[in-house]
Specification:
With 254 residues, this protein is α+β, with helices and mostly antiparallel strands. The chain folds into two domains: 118 residues, no CATH class; 112 residues, Cupredoxins -  blue copper proteins (Immunoglobulin-like, Sandwich). The chain has eight helices and nine strands. The strands form two sheets. The chain has a five-stranded mixed beta sheet. A four-stranded mixed beta sheet has the order 2-1-4-7. Helix 1 packs antiparallel against helix 5, helix 3 runs antiparallel to helix 4 and helix 4 runs antiparallel to helix 5. The longest helix is centred in the N-terminal third of the chain and has 26 residues. The radius of gyration is 27 Å and the shape is elongated. The structure holds copper (II) ion. The site of copper (II) ion has 5 residues, from loops. Copper (II) ion (CU) binds next to loops.
Length: 254
């Protein structure tokens, strides 16, 4: 790394008079490191981290998507804070701090980005759906009908090969929160068709639907979406073969 080479050169400085080091020591002592200030800042950042953990726990159940990159970023920020503070005291030059900080960022940023993309797509999908449910657009885009009122919850049991219950109704534009409890021995999902049943009676073969929740065998999956324009739609399990075997239900939008 180019920046890394600049630092050792400055620490040697062979032509420097030994008296300068004494003066430097005295200057650092006089500077009185603001330990309390650094401590308070670190405490605030930690409080934010704890807040994020509890917030995500409440909103997304057991989903850890989203908070990992944020926490990683905060950890990097904390590390930089400490490093830059003491770099500043030692070298008395912001230039070195900037070089060092840029080096750390160049290393940390790709890691944060990699973490975001390493998350499994279905989980990201349900998080996006949840975020879009708030009322300002979301996945349905600007054509989504507006609805004022609380979302409805749909708690369904899934197994080989059924949904119980197998009917769901909502108002156009209303948020629908889905909890799929998989009591079977293979993975199941909850997906809804994009087009009404009359236009696409088999969305699992046309692939014209979206997965809202997925639940591995014996566990629970969550997700949410916004009810589209009025009509009769289908919800189904998008694991190949499952819808044909009976994992289909009707979704009526009034
Ligand atoms: Cu299934």
């Amino acid at each position: 790394m180019e920046h890394g080479q600049a630092i050792p050169q400055t620490t040697i400085e062979p032509h420097r008079d030994p008296g300068d080091f004494v003066a430097e020591e005295a200057r650092i002592k006089k500077a009185k490191p603001n330990y309390i200030g650094v401590f308070i800042l670190l405490a605030i950042l930690t409080a934010i981290e704890i807040g994020i953990v509890s917030l995500f726990h409440k909103e997304n159940g057991n989903s850890t998507v989203g908070r990992v990159p944020i926490l990683l970023g905060l950890t990097v920020a904390k590390g930089l804070l400490v490093i830059l503070y003491y770099m500043h005291l030692k070298f008395d030059s912001r230039l070195y701090s900037i070089f060092f900080g840029a080096g750390v960022l160049a290393f940390a940023l790709p890691m944060v980005i990699a973490f975001i993309f390493l998350m499994s797509p279905p989980q990201l999908h349900s998080v996006r759906a949840e975020a879009g449910e708030g009322g300002t657009g979301g996945e349905q885009g600007p054509t989504a009908p507006s609805f004022v009122g609380p979302p409805i919850t749909f708690d369904a049991e899934g197994g080989e090969f059924y949904f119980k219950p197998d009917a769901l109704a909502a108002q156009a534009g209303q948020g629908v929160r889905v909890t799929l409890t998989n009591v079977g021995s293979v993975e199941h999902t909850f997906a809804i068709s994009n087009k009404p049943k009359s236009e696409d009676p088999t969305p699992w073969t046309t692939n014209d639907g979206k997965e809202i929740a997925h639940a591995p065998a014996g566990s629970t999956g969550k997700g949410s979406f916004k009810a589209p324009t009025p009509g009769e739609y289908l919800f189904y399990c998008d694991v190949p073969g499952h819808a044909q075997a009976g994992m289909v239900g009707t979704f009526t939008v009034q």
